[in-house]
Amino acid sequence: MMCARAVQHVDGLDSSTPAAQAGGHNLIEKHFRGNQIPTARCARPPRKARNHGGPDGAARHGYAPLFSPLVSGDDDMRVFSAGLGTETNTFAPMPTSLASFRDRDYYPAGTHPDTVTFAGAPLYVARQRGKALGWELFEGVVTSAQPGGITTRSAYETLRDELLADLRRALPVDMVLLGLHGAMVADGYDDCEGDVLRRVREIVGPGVTVGAELDPHAHLTPAMVEHADVLVLFKEYPHTDIRERAQELVTLCVQAREGRIAPKAALVDCEMIVPMHTTREPARSFVRRIQEMEGKNGILSISVAQGFATGDVPEMGTKVLVYADGDAGQARQAARRLADELIAMREQLMVPYRSIDEALDEARAFEGGPVVLADRPDNPGSGAPGDSTFMLARMLERGVRNAALGPLWDPVAVRIAFDAEPGATLMMRLGGKVGPLSGDPVDVSCTVKALKKNLVMTGLSGAPAPMGDCALVEAQGIEIVLTSVRNQAINTDLFSQLGCDLASKKIVVVKSAQHFHASFSQVARHVIYVGGRGVATPDWKTLPYRKIRRPKWPL
Question: In b/e form, how buried is each residue of 46-61, taking b as 16+ CB within 10 angstroms?
């Protein structure tokens, strides 16, 4: 029996186009041909495209609007879903091990909770959709690790092979939905997600729809695009839209499976690396505009991979991915046009970082409070240890009072605080333990104000973020949240659960790059982004890159 599926190949950049001549973008385009490929089992052939009503030509192009109710004729569709991901800072000193995954999120096949997790959003959405549509859902392993250093080969291969074994046990399937990251690097693997998707495709064959949700801090590679039918990246930074993008992924994959759409992909490399804070302009309006383009005039999906600057791999950088319905040329034109627009606004997209002293001066001069200072160089969400003392030491030296800081990762200090009990005052050595970029330990007299075992912070998209045993200590007018599990500040309840009243503070220092913003902006009168030394420094020109492909503005 023969199954018809698209055969994919990658083209180079058409250097004759104005966009290519101006920006030198690399373009990857997926073409679909009608080659017949034999497989062991052929999934049901795609159903005839139906005419679904919708605004702005959705019916004309034969696909439903992305957020319309999904109607599926495949009542017995067999779906496999799983997740594997982490964000790798290749300059970080701490390896990401198997224990790093098990300590954060590790759900063997069939044990994922009934909530959204970082790598489990496609599975969660498939559960909800599948119940209504009568799917047979096979749930594989879902696991993710806190961003850190290079993943060990044994950890990656063990978890990858577990996911693939779960998939093999589920065969035959009609659709595969994965939660990945896009910037996972392991010893011997610069593109873990491309490797996973390639192996998935080898297992299921060409007749199965494969889709994945990715983080926008991804190294979006040709291999990922080649081996997946649909890739959807979060659009918001902070990542408040994990659930929504998973819903979009599932909708597109079902429509592709049923033959209602024929996604054709184009990927443009902008040859730069820029952050896109969607809490401010111009990124906010740019994202709103690409969302307005989706589901209209043949454009199915648009994703922007901001890239992850502290990942030293060849494909690091900002890229634009567009899927058009049956028209590769349209996808190519849209991707290039949007890439050119991003290049034109790259200066405005860069974050205005202050030095520690500049930030403290600005915060003190600001009338009222709280003023939130984001300690970007020690952001655990970018692979930093979270135990840097540069900010704390300078605040103590300058006599800053009525302030809060956290989370400071120091399991030893937490244990001492628990032993001392609330109310005790004692000399403590805080932070500065992992390496030179963590600074020197701070020796200071502390009063233990509060303790909480197994504190759980509200994480991205409301997912629980375990922080382990935590302590609130006060040192010379600065309340410090000490944690035994490494993570960034995402929600104000990290502080409030320990009785720290942020609204009463003049200065609040958070170890985070941007994910803090969704929650902390609700109490902040002013936000300042702080640069400087650290494992996750935003001064990328100081990093010893060896593998990235240049030119790469602003490096």
Answer: beebeebebeeebeeb
